[in-house]
């Protein structure tokens, strides 16, 4: 097990690790316990009462956080012709087709955070499923990353669009901002995320939907939010 640093240990002394906190209290604590010399990313980790092995219990979608993510997102777009020109004009960091697919496959190149593709390019992108999929980079119509409206897609991504989806343990891991945002902006982003996840609740899900909610900074301890106060 990795040894915890003195800042981490000092942060643990600021609160009861077992307590379930109100949202505003959790956001205040996560900023107070962010002690690194860089602007730490704040994440939400939400365990859901679903079984993602079943297609009718999948939870996946995308939202635009009202205060953004605080991160300069690098976007790769697979497109050709006029659509490639549209992507470049809309601020894409990389635009191309087969040559970019080969660069990813042959050079293990991943200098990007989001992949967007026009529908006609999915034949090319599909061959990258084994390398893009595990990294959560595979374009998907449900998240708005397979689209003909590249201008809109890029505007939303650059403004702070984040995707949420279940991992194998039925947990959603999502960025909600930076420590420098402060408690109020983090809470605004967090509540928009929670509302979207609640609206995405599968009809097949039974029992308690929000099992546990933890907020954490890059280097800080996890702070538990009381799921009962979030509405289900």
Automatic annotation (TrEMBL):
What InterPro entries does the record point to? Ribosom_uL1_bac-type (IPR005878), Ribosomal_uL1 (IPR002143), Ribosomal_uL1-like (IPR023674), Ribosomal_uL1/biogenesis (IPR028364), Ribosomal_uL1_3-a/b-sand (IPR016095), Ribosomal_uL1_CS (IPR023673)
UniProt-listed NCBIfam families: rplA_bact
| TM stretches of this protein | none
A Gene Ontology molecular function term of the record: tRNA binding
**Could you confirm whether the keyword Repressor appears in this record?**
yes
Outline what the protein does: Protein L1 is also a translational repressor protein, it controls the translation of the L11 operon by binding to its mRNA.
Q: Which UniProt keywords apply?
A: Repressor, Ribonucleoprotein, Ribosomal protein, RNA-binding, rRNA-binding, Translation regulation, tRNA-binding
Could you tell me which Gene3D superfamilies the record lists for this protein? 3.30.190.20, 3.40.50.790
The similarity annotation says: Belongs to the universal ribosomal protein uL1 family.
State how it assembles: Part of the 50S ribosomal subunit.
**What protein name is recorded for this chain?**
Large ribosomal subunit protein uL1
Gene Ontology cellular component list = large ribosomal subunit
Q: What GO terms describe the biological role, i.e. biological process, of this protein?
A: regulation of translation; translation
PROSITE patterns found in the cross-reference section:
RIBOSOMAL_L1
């Amino acid at each position: 097990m990795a040894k915890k640093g003195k800042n981490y240990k000092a942060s643990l002394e600021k609160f009861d690790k077992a307590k379930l906190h109100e949202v505003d209290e959790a956001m205040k604590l996560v900023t107070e316990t962010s002690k690194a010399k860089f602007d730490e990313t704040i994440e939400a980790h939400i365990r859901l009462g679903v079984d993602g092995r079943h297609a009718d219990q999948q939870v996946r979608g995308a939202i635009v956080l009202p205060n953004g993510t605080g991160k300069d997102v690098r976007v790769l777009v697979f497109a050709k012709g006029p659509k490639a020109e549209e992507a470049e004009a809309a601020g894409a960091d990389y635009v191309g087709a087969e040559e970019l697919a080969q660069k990813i496959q042959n050079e293990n190149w991943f200098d990007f955070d989001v992949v967007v593709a026009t529908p006609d390019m999915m034949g090319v992108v599909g061959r990258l499923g084994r390398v893009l999929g595990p990294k959560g980079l595979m374009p998907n119509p449900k998240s708005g990353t397979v689209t003909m409206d590249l201008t809109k897609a890029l505007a939303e991504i650059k403004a702070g669009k984040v995707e949420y989806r279940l991992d194998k343990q039925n947990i959603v891991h999502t960025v909600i901002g930076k420590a420098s945002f402060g408690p109020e902006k983090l809470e605004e982003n967090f509540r928009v995320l929670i509302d979207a996840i609640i609206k995405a609740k599968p009809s097949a899900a039974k029992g308690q939907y929000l099992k546990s909610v933890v907020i954490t900074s890059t280097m800080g301890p996890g702070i538990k939010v009381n799921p009962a106060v979030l509405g289900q």
